[in-house]
Amino acid sequence: MNGFLSDGAPMVRRLILSEFRSYPALDLAFGQRLVAFMGENGAGKTNLLEALSLFAVGRGLRRADLPEMAREGGSGGFAVSILVETDGGEHRLGTALEPAKGGGFERTSRIDRNPVSSASAFADFARLVWLTPALDGLFTGAPGDRRRFLDRLVLAVDPTHGSRVNALEKALRSRNKLLEAERLDAAWLDAVEREVTETGVAVAMARQETVGRLKALIADTRQEGDPFPWAALTLEGPIDAVLGTASALEIEDLYRGWLRDNRLKDRAAGRTLIGPQATDLLVRHGPKDVAADRASTGEQKALLVGLVLAHARLVAAMTGIVPIVLLDEVAAHLDPRRRAGLYAALDGLGAQVFMTGADPALFGDLPADCMRLAVTGGRVFPAP
To answer: Which of 152, 191, 268, 378 has its CA 20 to 30 A from that of 226?
Structure first.
């Protein structure tokens, strides 16, 4: 994995931080496609990955509120920028939490120092995928965790998906508030439910398209003996079950009927029970044909790594942009055979990869030309 740019594979050449997390100031240059950050727990390794993840749509790999990212004891704001090399040349992408005119702070984003409306504009220059320890319990955790993971899969190929999800959540809040009233206003409910169904079906269709494409890619590329088992994916929910059986308008009409019929039940529950907000992503260990939550801990980790790698390939295939890959402490949970398989898969992907690990020995099998950096106390320097 050398430092030369491959077709469709952006490369971060420089990362600059100001007042971000544990870093008062930092200016890092990268010359290689594979970068390993090494250091003790709490040294600030994940902070570097989080800074990079802000150039994807959403709240970053920790899903933290922006004020939490500002350095403790600092001004309350922060700035992060990268110099990214693409097929079309070098571009400077920047995002910051800055003082707002009316008080407080607001997020700003810039491309080549020119303001842009949101971070979704960064998708024209770079896409990112990641795997963190927080995802280790994905298959055994709550359905909401899998929905967020599912929406992250969609966002990487369709940056507008976040706006649809936000619109759906807003419409659902409006409906739930109307249901709390002492007397139900049928006219207002009809109007809000129309908005719920229109945005809800759009969200469900975007999820279905991405999962369908991912399933096809997995089927085309899986090989017997792969160190990472292939995943069988299914979307479970009433709307997901009828997608493809009728037109979008017909499904919206069906969904509106469900909402109308369930008003009293939803009122008693204090929330809307049917819809994309209740969809679950079901995953099975393909080679063994068992539910992922019944597989061993090691098998679940390998299954998750394989799913993220497949998603990275899908992003490259659908967008023409090979995603930048962020892997937080992933090697610590893999046996030697799977670590070697991971490094080989990353090499074949042709992506720039940023990894973290507390044990330098875990990176012993990395290619000799990778960039190894030690992290400690807000400082980053070449590892001995």
So the answer is: 152
- 8 Å CB contact between 61 and 53: yes
Domain boundary at 299, 314, 329, which? 314
Q: In terms of domains, do 275 and 334 share one?
A: no
The phi, psi pair for 18, rounded to 5°, reads -140, 120
Answer yes or no: do 243 and 301 share one domain.
Answer: yes
Domain hosting 54: range is: 1-127+321-384
Residue 358 has phi, psi (to 5 degrees) of -85, -25
How do strand 290-291 and strand 23-29 relate by DSSP bridges? unpaired
Question: Same domain for 310 and 331?
Answer: no
Placement of tokens 């280790």 in the chain? 136
For strand 280-285 and strand 290-291, is the pairing parallel, antiparallel, or unpaired? Answer: antiparallel
User: What does the block give as tokens for 80?
Assistant: 């992060």
- Cα separation, 235 vs 93, in Å, equals 35
Read off the pLDDT of residues 255-295 as tens digits, 9 standing for 90 and up. 999 999 999 999 999 999 999 999 999 999 999 999 999 99
Question: Which residues are registered as beta bridge partners of 99?
Answer: 105
**Beta-sheet strands, E only, within 126-240:** 128-131, 231-236
CB of 78 within 8 A of CB of 96?
yes
> At 159, which CATH number?
1.20.1050.90
- Per residue in 16-44, pLDDT (tens digit) is 999 999 999 999 999 999 999 999 999 99
Cβ 324 vs Cβ 52: under 8 Å: yes
Beta bridge partners of 236: 280
Same-domain status, 170 and 291: yes
Residues 283 and 151 in one domain: yes
Same domain, 183 and 302: yes
Please give the pLDDT value at position 70: 97
Measured in residues, the chain has a length of 384
CB 26 within 8 A of CB 67: no
Count of structural domains within the chain: 2
pTM above 0.85, yes or no: yes
Question: What gap in Å lies between CA 258 and CA 278, rounded to an integer?
Answer: 14
Give the pLDDT band (50/70/90) at residue 203.
very high
